Amino acid sequence: MSPDQPATLAAWLRTRTDEQLGALLVSRPDVARPAPSDVVGLATRLAVPVSVDRALDELDAATLQVLDAVLLSPTDGVPRTELPGLLPDVPTEVVDAAVETLATRALLWGDEELHAPEPVRRAVRYPAGLGRRAVDLRVQLPRDLPAVLADLAPDERTVLDRLAGDRPVGHLPDSTAGSLSPARRLLQAGLLARIDAINVELPREIGLVLRGDRPLGPPRLRPEPEPSRRDPAVVDRQAAGAALEVLSRVVDVLTALEEEPAGLLRGGGLGVRDQKRLAKEMRIGEADVAFLVEVAHAAGLLDVGGAHRDEWLPTRSYDAWREQDLADRWATLAWGWLTSVRLISLVGQRDVAGKAVNVLSPDVVRQTAPVLRRSALSVLAEFPAGTGLAAPELVSLLRWRTPRRADRLAPVPDLLAEAERLGIAIGGVLSSGGRGLLTGGEDDAADGMRGLLPEPVDHVLAQPDLSLIAPGPLVADLAGTLGVVADVESSGGATVYRVSDGSIRRALDAGWSATDLHDFFARSSRTPVPQALEYLIDDVARQHGRLRVGAIECYVRSDDHGLVSQVLSDRRTANAELRRLAPGVLVSGLPPEEVLSVLRAAGYAPAGESAGGAVLTRPQAPPRAAGRRPGAGAGPVGPRPLAPGDVAATVREIRAGDAALAARRSEPVRQVPGVTTASTLELLSRAVRENLPIWLGYVDAQGSGSQRVVQPVSLAGGFLQGFDEGRGESRTFAVHRITSVALVEAEDATG
């Protein structure tokens, strides 16, 4: 090493410019909070194993190969000019870019000679897929290693060649009766090292000999997969169709859960019985129900609620969401999916105990899921509009971009299929809404989809067969009303509703009159109301309310005494626990809601009654869960990026702290916080009087200690006024919180 070259990582960091230090903090934001007190503190944080692993995980295969070349060097450092010679098959520009990336992240340091910090060497246990050195494995290798390897049996050489590939650790098989396996013979010959009871490792020296003139393996250049090309307009139209479908289906599933909430399992999640019920009601597959329920939950539209918080219910946010336009509603679903920590594809798979994972189960939570979704879609966003990658090609490219995370890429094809169902990407090509989702969040996603979705319609088309056709997405009020007076028969671009005696009775139970229903259908239908529908309304209305139910806990009465006797003798009403109180009056010990349910299930048409004898027409408010903000509970998936202003402030603090340590002119005057000494006051007064910068040790109100360079302005009333060089602002310091103070050279403190 040249005498004028830095000898340590901290010394090298001092030679970096403010822009280079800022780039380091941006690339590794976990070391920037709270701001390091000086360069030594920064170097210490850069050596934390978790930080090193995170930084290495973000490197592509080509950059890691350049790092491997430095790690495999027999000397401590590698001259930068010699690095291209170690990688003859790798283009020089790729090597230079990799060195710049590694130096920016402080995974390599040095200018003329490149060094790898010790924590990086420990983190990369098998550089270039080669094992540890023989001395580290405590193996004595033969003196003439090439000759010994040339004399090996074919089956033994096959074992060594396999371990000399990209993973030097292998499993030690059991020996057959009367003979040793090739691996055990190699172990006895000292060509393999045992690392535990069942695994062996190939020493590095043997791997290098077997690889010959390519010790670092083949060049790990960026793969160039064949992209998929589609007409952007067609992609957007298909995305809009998928968006309409998922919006309609989410409303359907939440409406079903509003009418009959699903129970919360003891271990969390939604039961298989409820999943099957929803699939039957909506006429879709159980896997489709799982997807829709999980998406609704991720968007904050479905959560646990009820009197005992033991039911899955629509949330209060659901009501506000239904009032939004279609593009905003879609953006809420897409953003919830993108930021969710739940992997929907795990639903239905078997856990370690062999039990299938339920919908909404805690077992599908993976904290890396948001990073995985964003990284996969970000690759697609690098292609121009109308161009993308199919799932196999996307996985191949991701394996090159983050090889240390390759074992986490199995869900990528499923995530791409989910993105297609949501209209984010079609056939591996991002839609306009999907591209906006990645670049600007919900607002840009809604803008990208807004011109593609139709405007909601405020009418239906009544048909003679008692069906109602909605020729597009309905306005919220009309959709809510139709959910009461009719049942969804099929959904999609045009939703078909079916009117039946059960749906008319449901509307009457909710307080509608026959006149109200006639007026609603006449007002909402662009086609004439069929006569059959008018007859159906009148027939059901004549039967409705002939039987009355009230609270005793409760009573049942009717002017038709024969009807009352019929109800009492009907075996289907036994669960209502009715008994005769007087002619035309029955009573029960059950609540009115339960008696109403039993009588309706038996085919009668009872109505609720108030204490004054009036028919109860005010419907109960639908049950709602409190819900949560979408994305809440996701937890941090990585360090939060630094804003440009934060980067500059942090660099200033590091420079100021480093200058204070390097330029201290006198021994600091130290004191116990809360006890102000005469020496402290004397030194502070001198600094104010002579306008001298000081190095200040200070403890804030939270008990956190720090060191900073301060240009004092005044000292009065137990407080020091001064300009904090590190933070670039004027501050007030309580003298009793000062722990130490020393004079520094002004030019060094600010330089």
From TrEMBL:
Helicase XPB/Ssl2 N-terminal domain ranges (all copies): 460-582
InterPro entries annotated for this entry? WYL_dom (IPR026881), XPB/Ssl2_N (IPR032830)
Taxonomically, which superkingdom? Bacteria
Please state every residue range assigned to the domain named WYL: 680-742
Q: Where is this region: Disordered?
A: 213-234, 609-644
Q: Where is the composition biased (Basic and acidic residues)?
A: 221-234
* Classification via Pfam families: Helicase_C_3, WYL
Protein name per its UniProtKB record: Uncharacterized protein
Task: State the organism named in the record.
Answer: Modestobacter italicus (strain DSM 44449 / CECT 9708 / BC 501)
Identify the taxonomic lineage of the organism of origin.
Bacteria, Bacillati, Actinomycetota, Actinomycetes, Geodermatophilales
